[in-house]
Design brief:
Chain A has nine helices and twelve strands. Chain A is of the alpha/beta class. The longest helix of chain B is centred in the last third of the chain and has 17 residues. In chain B, 50% of the residues are buried. The chains are: A alpha/beta, B alpha/beta. The interface between A and B is medium-sized, with 29 and 25 residues.
Chain lengths: 253, 438
């Protein structure tokens, strides 16, 4: 059982504070959804937790199994068990998916230890079969010329191979049509299990029709202002974010 | 001999008339025409000035470090370093200090198919007309006339590869040229003649005995593709990091022929590479590729000329440099389209990946078009590692250094992917990998 604890986190880009005292605890096996309108800091939260160098943490802490990860580089955090599924994954021309994942797997091995190529491909193909991804996919350059759906499936494949403790999924549904959304959601549901904690960031409720969360949080102005179970998502769908805004205004008035 | 009025004095450095005489004396009896050409070349060399800073064809080059002093022309070497990049070959020629060290004809049927893989010394005797027709017949146009003349004067031996009409050799032919010993000067040469519809792949290796030996290497290659012929040429330059090197290429492409050359620049403290492709008949295609891994204070200086002399010819140049530490690169390329070379399709691209703030990449792309119905594009870019790509890789657990290496490989892949031979592609990739581990 692992835990990811975000404690009163404050983070800025340049002089601008975007995450303003956010707290959240995720345990293995749980799926949390963070919802909120655009510009409330949802994507920033994912990037800050995964160690993007553009952001500065000005307060609070992030603990993975009790250990603060804030001084770690992004790659150390990833090796410790974090995975960020990008909203807009980078294209890496000239680097095949197979070689890219191989480097990522190699990075998790001890110094001087060499990857067993046969075992690696066996595992890769098993994961691809599980996610119903064509094997030809592996020889393509990472995300280069991919459709929105292919990019997201590539993210899911990486997640399957790297077996993180916690996955931060940033707007996984953005840019996907219904068919692609269904395929990607199936992938996430396949990986869901007692050893994986998921933080799903989404703007729309529709993703939650496919991946049913255990907890739903509403983010507003850099903080979580409301938490509940999956029914909160439906309530939001019905009443809109203005409802939260009004409630919040009433509470702080 | 015309005497030009130039401010820089003509210098011969270590290559005095006495040294030249001693060189001639060390050779077996030469055909009269070749001896005459060598003497004329020496006279040209002695009369020409060293390059000066104001020469347009030496713009951005470090002139002060060009020297002909302090080297000598040694005799045959007793041993060569082990040489292989692990690919199967049809034949191998190994030269050390300009003399044949060993020769292996690995594919049994080469001779019966009329293929010649021999030394230039033997070819001068046995195939004099072919050698005379193709050896160093194109005047240097890219600035190194003095060094080219020195090459011709001191060329002792090299590789002669002839593939007759209609013969296709699947496995590559390997030529290895080693500079052995401190202060060694060598003058390697590879001459490839492909007859009509012949097909051949040649890999030219250049290496030193040790990475700290001061050396001077002045090499050249001539590639001649007859009608419909296909030549793939890979040059792997891995001289000592204290070597000064000049390499000049002359490629002639005839009707519907295709030449693909890929030069991999790894070694040398200062290395100049000049490449001239002449597209002489419709359907001719020259693909000019280059990769440099520039470390420390290395300077790679590349000058190219794509000469379209006939209609419906094509050339495609892609030179990529990865620059580390304080390394410098210079790319100066020119596409020339003759007035009647209509429907020319010419492309020229130089891309530099800057992996250090102290590195310097200079690009001088150029076009000279005298026909009106052509498609010519050229461009040069210098870029750094994209921080978002780097973060993407790091977010998968790959450390920054390994991420940058992977991105640099990705950058090179566009060039390596042009090779049709997968084995060769993988071998070069592995070779480049060793250059990242310091």
């Amino acid at each position: 059982m692992s835990t990811l604890v975000i404690k009163d986190l404050h983070a800025s880009i340049g002089e601008k504070e975007i995450v303003k005292g956010l707290s959240l605890t995720i345990k293995s096996g749980e799926v949390h959804a963070i919802m909120g309108p655009n510009g409330t800091g949802k994507s920033t939260l994912a990037k800050v937790v995964s160690g993007h160098p553009d952001y500065t943490v000005t307060g609070g802490d992030v603990l993975l199994d009790g250990v603060s990860i804030l001084t770690q580089e992004a790659d150390e955090r990833a090796r410790a068990g974090l995975f960020l599924a990008f909203q807009y994954p980078s294209e890496i021309p000239g680097v095949s998916i197979a070689n890219f994942l191989r480097a990522a797997v190699q990075a998790r091995m001890a110094e001087g230890e060499e990857i067993d190529a046969t075992a690696y491909y066996k595992r890769l193909y098993a994961k691809m079969d599980m996610l119903k991804i064509d094997r030809k996919f592996t020889s393509r350059s990472v995300n280069e010329g991919f459709s929105g759906g292919e990019k997201k499936r590539c993210e899911i494949l990486q997640m399957a191979m790297l077996e993180p403790k916690f996955a931060l999924m940033d707007e996984t549904d953005s840019g996907l049509d219904i068919d692609a959304l269904r395929i990607v959601s199936e992938g996430v549901n396949t990986l869901r299990g007692p050893n994986l904690g998921v933080l799903m960031i989404t703007h729309y409720q529709r993703l939650l029709n496919y991946i049913v969360p255990d907890f739903v949080h509403v983010m507003w102005d850099g903080r979580i202002v409301k938490s509940g179970d999956k029914s909160l998502a439906l309530e939001l769908e019905a009443k809109g974010y203005d409802w939260v805004k009004k409630e919040l205004a009433a509470a702080t008035a | 001999m015309s005497v030009t009025t130039l401010s820089a004095p003509a210098v011969t450095g270590a290559f005095t008339p006495d040294v030249f005489q001693a060189h001639l004396a060390s050779l077996p009896e030469l055909p009269a025409w070749w001896l005459e050409r060598k003497r004329a070349a020496y006279a040209r060399f002695a009369a020409l000035p060293m390059p000066v800073r104001t020469d347009e064809s030496w713009r951005f080059s470090n002139i002060s470090t060009l020297t002909l002093e302090g080297v000598n022309v040694p005799g045959a070497a007793q041993a060569v370093p082990p040489a292989t990049i692990g690919i199967k070959k049809a034949a191998k020629l190994i030269f050390a200090n300009g003399r044949l060290f060993s020769r292996e004809l690995l594919a049994a049927d080469l001779a019966s198919r009329g293929v010649i893989v021999d030394t230039l010394q033997n070819a001068l005797v046995k195939h004099g007309d072919l050698v005379r027709e193709h050896l160093l017949t194109q005047p240097p146009k890219l600035g190194s006339a003095k060094f080219s003349a020195l090459h011709e004067a001191f060329l002792a031996d090299g590789a002669f590869i002839y593939v007759p009409k209609g013969v296709e050799i699947e496995l590559p032919i390997g030529v290895f040229s080693y500079a052995i010993g401190q202060n060694t000067a060598i003058f390697p040469h590879t001459l490839v003649v492909a007859g009509e519809n012949a097909k051949v792949t040649v890999i030219d290796y250049f290496g030193s005995e040790a990475d700290d030996q001061v050396q001077l290497a002045i090499g050249a290659n001539d590639l001649f593709a007859s009608h419909g012929a296909q030549i793939t040429y890979v040059g792997k330059q891995d001289w000592s990091h204290r070597a000064l090197s000049f390499q000049s290429n002359s490629t002639i492409v005839r009707r519907d022929a295709r030449v693909q050359s890929l030069n991999l620049h790894l070694g040398g403290r200062q290395s100049r590479h000049e490449s001239l492709s002449q597209l002489q008949a419709p359907g001719a295609f020259s693909e000019m590729l280059s990769l440099s891994v520039a470390h420390d204070d290395q300077e790679f200086d590349q000058r190219t000329l794509q000469l379209h002399q006939a209609p419906e010819t094509k050339s495609d140049l892609l030179y990529k440099n990865a620059l580390f530490e304080r390394a410098r690169t210079i790319f100066s390329g020119l596409i020339v389209v003759d007035p009647d070379a209509q429907k020319t399709d010419a492309y020229q691209s130089n891309r530099n990946l800057m992996l250090s703030d102290d590195a310097e990449a200079n690009s001088l792309p150029g076009l000279e078009i005298q026909a009106n119905d052509v498609r010519c594009t050229h461009g040069a870019t210098s870029s750094r590692i994209d921080p978002e790509q780097e973060f993407y890789l790091q977010s998968r657990g790959i450390a920054k250094e390994a991420a940058d290496e992977l991105l640099t490989f990705g950058f090179f892949e566009e060039v390596l992917n042009r090779l049709a031979n997968d084995e060769l592609h993988d071998a070069l990739r592995n070779l480049i990998r060793t250059k990242f581990k310091k």
